[in-house]
Amino acid sequence: MINPARLTSDLSRLRRETDMFLATIESLADREMTEPTLCEGWDRAHVIAHIASNGNALVKLIDWAVTGEPAELYASPEAREQEIDELAALPKEELIQKVRDSADYFEEQCERLKGEIKTEELDLHGKPVPATSIPAVRVAEVVVHHHDLDTTWTIEEADPDSLLNAVEAAVRTMRAKNAPGMTLRTEERDEWVIGDGGQEITSDREGMLAWLARGDDEHIESQGELPELPKW
């Protein structure tokens, strides 16, 4: 089981990040919903639709953790894309309500993690994720995709621990996709080793996330030329 105090803290941060995400999307005009984002191939409506869909899908990880029965988030990549496309086509207010509903559903289902955990480590698209980190996975999704919307909101506004969750999620992706060997260090004294850890790269959490997630190297320092990162 997850320590109840930790779960309460994680869900409190998730609520904060979700409320800021909702405030941002509620401020968008209808015409702004179709503007491009930092997430290649998706406009804002698609990014928002992904957050709505993801809140429901991640409940499958909770099911897996508490029942011991493996579960896929989506029936197939095509089913995932179709669901996101259908949500993105909804009128703005309906789409925003879908985000609210999925956020509430995910938080409600997280209460099940206070009980017995039958599967301690789960598989998320080839990435090992501890059952105790399921709420943090959702925090990372909200923070990264809030950044993707490319509005006046910046990742510096996220809670420091939420930024940590997001960088950790990005590191898991880099490891799963066999990124070049790197040792990542932040000004906040975090450290991650990817592969053989050969190249030292430093930044603060915000800069590290912007680079790992979307290739923005403005605030990255390195001993040599930065490696090419795999696409998400």
TrEMBL record:
Keywords, sorted A to Z: Coiled coil, Isomerase
GO terms for MF: isomerase activity
Coiled coil: 96-123
Source taxon at top rank: Bacteria
Keyword Isomerase assigned: yes
Pfam families xref list: MDMPI_N
Domain Mycothiol-dependent maleylpyruvate isomerase metal-binding residue range list: 14-149
Keyword Cytoplasm: no
InterPro entries: DinB/YfiT-like (IPR034660), Maleyloyr_isom (IPR017517), MDMPI_metal-binding (IPR024344), SCP2_sterol-bd_dom_sf (IPR036527)
NCBIfam families: maleylpyruvate isomerase family mycothiol-dependent enzyme
Name by which UniProt lists this protein: Maleylpyruvate isomerase family mycothiol-dependent enzyme
